[in-house]
Design goal:
The structure holds two protein chains of two kinds. Chain A is mostly helical. Chain A has two domains: about 15-170, UbiA prenyltransferase (Tetracycline Repressor, domain 2, Orthogonal Bundle), CATH 1.10.357; about 170-310. Chain A contains 16 helices and no strands. Chain A has helices at about 5-10, 15-20, 25-40, 50-75, 75-80, 95-115, 120-140, 150-155, 160-170, 175-195, 200-205, 210, 215-235, 245-265, 270-275, 280-305. In chain A, helix 4 runs antiparallel to helix 9 (about 160-170), helix 10 (about 175-195) runs antiparallel to helix 13 and helix 14 (about 245-265) runs antiparallel to helix 16. Chain B is mainly α. Chain B has a domain at about 10-40. Chain B is about 70% helix and about 0% strand. Chain B has helices at about 10, 15-40, 50-54. Chain B is rod-shaped and about 60 Å long. The termini of chain B are far apart. Chains A and B meet through helix 2 and helix 4 of A and helix 2 of B.
Chain lengths: ~300, ~55
């Protein structure tokens, strides 16, 4: 290959800053930032604003780094699925080697910086989260079992525990409860997505529940997990992280969520196809609002506590 | 080798380089801020340091 051809090939696939940033999965990172921030602020120990800001940033970088490593490993799957085909690696804008280097470098960087900014417990939890998401979920569970997102959901549930550890230097019942809320929320959220993404997962050979057990079974699973989630979420209202505001938000949101899950369970594929999976898409959208409002309410309770209003 | 002559590569990668420069500058500010906070609070000093001084 001549120099000229090398140059022209390089110019065709030159990545901009936005492409490298996209490797960090900014939308997932926003959820990580929000839940970690709630975990940090809900903790009973005050953290200096500078340390809080830096810690949240390093948690976000660690989450982003695991996203880059996920894209590096899953480039073959992403290329097949329409939802992910335009990601930087399958689109040819960033090479897999670059994504691997960025992911590994930022992972080590984020863990060390979090240890220096906050403490080693928080840093250890961040390291474990990255390991769990990349090795346990991405490399192992995702291509092996339809329970992939049930177990793998733990990776997305750790950020509030890390935020709590930044403030307190440890793990407690409250932080485990916040973990449980996200852990139980993840399956119905992703299974709703799998229902309306139709053939994406089958084409990519990913054993999602819709592929291995069919769409009818997936609808039933969404309902069961939503009922379990509702019990846990509302029950949390009576614990240390809950309070009247949380309980009100949780009762309303869980009523809507269970109503949506029942509607999904009662539908058959013909009806769903006829209206373009409207119900499934609205359930998916509602699930995002559900998590945001629950954590917003936890934050609200913590913010009002100093005035004698938050909590029980 | 002169750095004055701008290569086509510099123009093509300007956005990327500028982004990286801003990230590095931001990192310096964060490390500086953390250092000021930690030094001011006396983090990292032995817990009995003040007792010995007294």
């Amino acid at each position: 290959m001549s120099d000229a051809s090398l140059h022209s090939q390089a110019s065709d696939r030159d990545a901009g800053f936005a492409d490298y940033f996209a490797l960090l999965k900014p939308r997932v990172m926003s959820l990580v930032v929000f839940t970690a921030m709630v975990g940090l602020l809900a903790a009973p120990v005050a953290v200096h604003p500078m340390i809080a800001f830096a810690s949240i940033l390093f948690i976000a970088v660690g989450g982003g780094a695991s996203g880059a490593l996920n894209m590096w490993w899953d480039a073959d799957i992403d290329k097949v699925m329409t939802r992910t085909a335009q990601r930087p690696i399958p689109a040819g804008r960033v090479s897999p080697d670059e994504a691997y280097a960025i992911g590994m470098t930022l992972s080590v960087f984020a863990v060390i910086m979090l240890a220096l900014a906050a403490n080693w417990v928080a840093a250890g939890l961040l390291a474990f989260t990255i390991f769990f998401y990349v090795v346990v979920y991405t490399m192992w569970l995702k291509r092996w079992t339809p329970q992939n997102i049930v177990i793998g959901g733990a990776a997305g549930a750790f950020p509030p525990m890390i935020g709590w550890a930044v403030a307190t230097g440890g793990i407690s019942v409250e932080s485990v409860l916040m973990f449980t809320l996200i852990f139980m929320w993840t399956p119905p959220h992703f299974w709703a997505l799998a229902l309306f993404m139709k053939s994406d997962y089958r084409d990519a050979g990913v054993p999602m529940l819709t592929v291995t057990h069919g769409r009818r079974a997936t609808r039933a699973h969404i309902l069961v997990y939503t009922l379990l989630l509702a019990g846990i979420a509302v029950g949390m209202g009576f614990t240390a992280v809950g309070g009247p505001i949380y309980l009100l938000v949780s009762v309303v949101m869980n009523a809507l969520f269970v109503y949506g899950a029942v509607a999904i369970w009662r539908r058959d594929e013909t009806a769903a196809q006829a209206d373009g999976y409207r119900r499934e898409k609205s359930f998916f959208g509602l699930s995002l609002l559900y998590l945001f409002l629950h954590f917003g309410a936890i934050l609200g309770e913590a913010a009002l506590a100093p005035y004698g209003l938050g909590g029980w | 080798m002169s750095f004055r002559e701008e290569h086509e590569l510099h123009k093509r990668r300007f956005g990327r380089n500028l982004g990286l420069a801003l990230v590095l500058a931001g990192f310096i500010v964060i490390v500086f801020g953390l250092t000021v906070v930690k030094v001011t609070r006396g983090d990292g000093e032995p817990e009995n340091a003040t007792a010995v001084q007294n």
